[in-house]
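> @MW can you paste both from yesterday?
MW: sure, first one:
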Amino acid sequence: MKIFWDTNLFIYLWERQGDASEMEALCEWIESERHTIVTSSLTLGEILVQPLRLGREETADQYRRGFAGLEIVSFDSKAANEFARLRALHPGLRPPDAIQLACAVNSQCNVFLTNDDRLGKGEIVAGLKTLPLSRWKDGV
């Protein structure tokens, strides 16, 4: 199974924010079942902003290393077309969210995990189940 992680999950994991026990359980399950974590290059960019803003290059390097072994999807022309389709169908969808969803759809993910209240409602978007972290077990 391919599981797309929105940026906020990496923040919870690496900065120990949010529900740490839920993140630990999710990570253990993914590892034991040999599922693939997928995210986009936008996630990498978003997560590096704060450490770089604070001059914490070592933290930024740790985050970069944390992405090793994950499937990182680029926002290419195929994703741009999916982005446009999603924005046309869902006018209230913010551009960064549409980029993430387009990358998840194009990489054939099964589930999109987030803690963004606008996205994690258990809806099916372009064949992709969107779930909040608290309901990750519903996606399996």
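MW: second:
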Amino acid sequence: MSGYMIYNNTFINCHAGSFIGGGRRNQVLNNTYYNCSLAVHVDNRGMTWQADECKEGGPFDQQLQSVHYQSPPWSVHYPQLVHIFQDHPCVPVYNTVEDNQYCHGEFIDVTAEETREWLDTVANNTIHC
């Protein structure tokens, strides 16, 4: 999943409130997580068990080629895709997780190092019980 906005929601008694499965440019903003085992899950499946899916010549590339993604109208509507294979392919980059509140559970399951490596932003998330 890429390009989703998850904002102004309340999650109560969830296993994982918000789930980013390897996607990019997702925004998780101003949500409240109460009694969730994990508020926000982010994984790097494109770097691990799904790595073959997004290599050049793989299924993702074939799908993009089938719609001529580097030419209009696709290149105009989705300019980030034009150079996708030069911009950290398969890495969950440019995700933003900000200004969320949580209580009774773990907030996020990625490390600060992974956040930096993946060019993600995780900031201003607070415990609020």
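> thanks! Residues 51-89 form one domain.
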